[in-house]
Fold this protein.
Amino acid sequence: MNFDYSEEQQLLADSVRRFLQNKYQFEDRKKIISGAGWSEEVWAQFAEMGLTALPVSTDYGGFGGGAVDLMSVMEAFGEALVVEPLLPTLVAARLVGRAASDRSWCAGPSAASSVKSPDVMRSGSTGRPASASARRFQLS
């Protein structure tokens, strides 16, 4: 299995690293942690960079990226000790997307159409978490 980054993956990782080096210093992170626990400004920048749509299916307006696409971004996040809840948000978006596309669990098309997408998948969304509970999502 080849885990070398493609040119696009490397460009994205470099872009994320540059942003984090310039706008996510220790003092900035300290203010974020002592406040709401995440920054709306930083989250909006992540959304603008396309990070919130990275693993989301192209059927839902995302980029359809996979684990290796996400790996380069998460490496940069780890280096900068990012506190914003990107990974849990992306995991939740993927799960909702899969549930919405798997119609075998529902009684019919009307039941499938009642599945609501999270904010990161809605058109015109800012891509930020809706509440504190969205920030505290944990995988078991």
Notes: The radius of gyration is 16 Å. The domain at 7-135 is CATH 1.10.540.10 (Butyryl-Coa Dehydrogenase, subunit A; domain 1). DSSP finds seven helices and no strands in the chain.
